[in-house]
Specification:
It is a single chain. Helices cover 31% and strands 20% of the residues. It is an alpha/beta fold and 392 residues long. It has 2 domains: 95 residues, Urease, subunit C, domain 1; 284 residues, TIM Barrel, CATH 3.20.20. The chain has a 5-stranded mixed sheet with strand order 2-6-14-15-16, with helices on one face. The protein has a 4-stranded mixed sheet with strand order 4-3-1-5. The chain has a 4-stranded parallel sheet with strand order 10-11-12-13, covered by helices on one side. A hairpin with a 2-residue loop joins strand 3 and strand 4. Helix 4 packs parallel to helix 5 and helix 6 runs parallel beside helix 7. Bound molecules: zinc ion. The site of zinc ion has 4 residues, from loops.
């Protein structure tokens, strides 16, 4: 018997899309070997199988927007040139993966420490999620998150910023297409670049095989980024003159569909406060999300972890809030954090589903998340690329 083989049985199995008839999962080294019925096990296999009655196995969760370098306990943005704390970043990664987050996309830092963390995790030297990293976001002079060093006055400077990220071995490029709240003097409604400039950046990244994620709050910036052909719109807040979610535009959504643009709405657990207040903003945001989904715009679950008060390991908690904000079923939300997220991140041939040959990224929770998303906060066991990082 292969010592690296783990047989889990008596499970409910939600495979990233639907609940299966199978009740047994066999993990072998870094991969899933089989998803089958317990009756198919040999007596020897059955003897070594671990019974997990009452639990559900699902693919490890994915957070499509985090900042490993940011300390959520801190309310002020980093100073220019401040790189971050590698030990704290390792701790965040460990907390994420033991909470069941086996993949995360890092959308910005200043000193490429998240790339070192990504590599250490991939080498098995540190527990953590598989990371995809963007490095320094491209921004305008004194623009959103300029303190991370990605300022560009014009297209050629922006290309130089992109080249610098490529030299640091990033997985994608992040562009700040509008201002943001986190940066003093920056306005969420204001676009930071012209469509033509954004398109030149997207094309430059594409030549190097890299997709672009664009931070967009204001509708003019969303429109420009979609026209420029970015892969994903981050936040997608539809900010207009009347505030958050006040300028939803169907024509822009139609363009998203033509371009195949993804949306990563960064809805974190803290949005619960807005839900309780039943603010006009939350109703407008819900209407926008419902409309986008009804047209078929694909969504990736994300939290923007690292910004003040948003902790890196809280995606499982945020998903129930996401369901409520976007009026989505539990299963739709689970897909947006597993199989759909994998597609949005270009990982759909490796992870996001419980399927033979796929990476063994597995979360086991007590209860059934398809009927109650809150059980996601009760992980029983977690495997990340075959490494057991939690065992209840
Ligand atoms: Zn962010």
């Amino acid at each position: 018997m292969n010592a690296q083989r783990t047989i889990l049985t008596d499970l409910r199995i939600w495979d990233g899309d639907t609940t299966l008839d199978a009740d047994t999962l066999i993990l072998n080294g870094p991969a899933i070997e089989a998803v089958c019925s317990g009756t198919a096990l040999s007596p020897a296999e059955a003897g070594t199988a671990r019974s997990l009655a009452g639990t559900t196995a699902l693919p490890g969760l994915m957070d499509a927007h985090v900042h490993m370098v940011l300390d959520p306990n801190r309310s002020s943005p980093p100073a220019a040139g401040e790189t971050g704390d590698p030990a704290a970043m390792r701790e965040r990664a460990a907390m994420m993966v033991t909470a069941g987050i086996t993949t995360a996309r890092d959308l910005g830092g200043g000193g490429w420490l998240e790339i070192e963390l990504r590599n250490a995790i991939a080498r098995g030297e540190a527990p953590g999620p598989r990371l995809l990293c963007a490095g320094q976001p491209v921004t305008c002079l004194q623009g959103h998150c300029h303190f991370w060093g990605g300022e560009a006055a014009d297209v050629s400077a922006a290309k130089a910023v992109i080249d610098r990220q490529i030299a640091h071995d990033v997985d994608l490029i992040k562009i700040m297409a509008t201002g943001g709240r986190f940066t003093r003097g920056s306005k969420p409604l204001a676009p930071q670049f012209e469509t033509r400039a954004l398109r030149a950046m997207v094309d430059h990244a594409r030549v190097h095989g890299l997709a672009v994620a664009a931070h967009c709050h204001g509708t003019p910036g969303i429109d420009a980024a979609v026209r420029a052909g970015v892969h994903s719109i981050e936040h997608c807040s539809w900010v207009g003159e009347e505030g958050w979610a006040s300028d939803y535009q169907e024509a822009v959504v139609m363009r998203m569909l033509e371009q195949g643009t993804w949306v990563s709405p960064t809805i974190n657990a803290g949005w619960r406060r807005m839900l309780k207040g039943a603010t006009p903003t939350i109703s407008r945001m819900r209407a926008a999300l419902v409309n986008m989904r009804s047209h078929g715009v694909p969504l990736m679950a994300s939290t923007d972890a690292g910004i003040p008060g948003v902790f890196h390991h809280q995606l499982p908690e945020a998903l129930a809030v996401f369901a409520e904000v976007a009026a989505m079923s539990a299963e739709e939300v689970l897909r947006s954090a597993t199989s759909e997220a994998a597609r949005g991140l270009g990982l759909e041939r490796h992870t996001g589903r419980l399927r033979p040959g796929f990476d063994a990224d597995v979360l086991i929770v007590a209860g059934d998340p398809v009927t109650d998303l809150t059980v996601l906060t009760q992980p029983v066991a977690v495997w990340a690329r075959g490494r057991c990082v939690r065992e209840g």
